[in-house]
Amino acid sequence: MTLKEQKIRRYFFYFWLALAAGLLFFLLNQNIKLGDKWSYDLRLDQVSTRNWYGPYPESRTSYRSDAKYLQVLAEPLYWQIYLPQKYQTVFWRAKIINTNQQPISIGLKQKDGSWQMQEVSTEQFTLEFSLKNALIKNNRLEFIMSLPEISSDKQIFIENLNLEFHK
């Protein structure tokens, strides 16, 4: 093999090595890097996944698979949501069918043990919570849904639920 062939071979070897390293870095970066926002679409037919737990206690809800909604039977309901890294705010988006227009509040647990509560005024809504004073325990946030006037004749259904975190 001549010197010129060795140089060409070495050039291609280092070129492919650099290309493979760049591709590996790109793929790892895509899987590890979290952007400026992170979102969960909570499946109402599952109570527990790796990223969230709730609503609980489970005896206070009933999933209607034919209509794909969660019927609320009693209050309060709680959710624990995994927070993958530090964010500034969380947007709670949901569609709640409230047949008797009874009061509904959703809250985020704070460091001092209190709840940052917000009233739900429409069927489809977005609530914004600041995470500045939120209690983050084991990288998890805790939310509460309060329905103080719920009874067997007043029905409430959760149709979808999405949480979006922003830096």
Q: Would you give an account of this structure?
A:
This protein folds into 2 domains: 1-33; 37-166, Galactose-binding domain-like (Jelly Rolls). Strands 1, 3, 4, 6, 9 and 11 form a 6-stranded antiparallel sheet that branches. Strands 2-5-10-7-8 form a 5-stranded antiparallel sheet, with no helix packed on it. 18% of the residues lie in helices and 43% in strands. The chain has 1 helix and 11 strands; from the N terminus they run αβββββββββββ. With 167 residues, it is α+β, with helices and mostly antiparallel strands.
Report a brief summary of the structure.
This protein is an alpha+beta fold and 167 residues long.
Q: What global shape is seen?
A: elongated
Q: In which range does the helix fraction lie?
A: 10-25%
N→C terminal distance: 58 Å
The total beta strand count reads: 11
Can you tell me the CATH superfamily of the largest domain?
Galactose-binding domain-like
pLDDT below 50 for ≥5 consecutive residues: which ranges?
none
Instruction: Give the topology string: H per helix, E per strand.
Output: HEEEEEEEEEEE
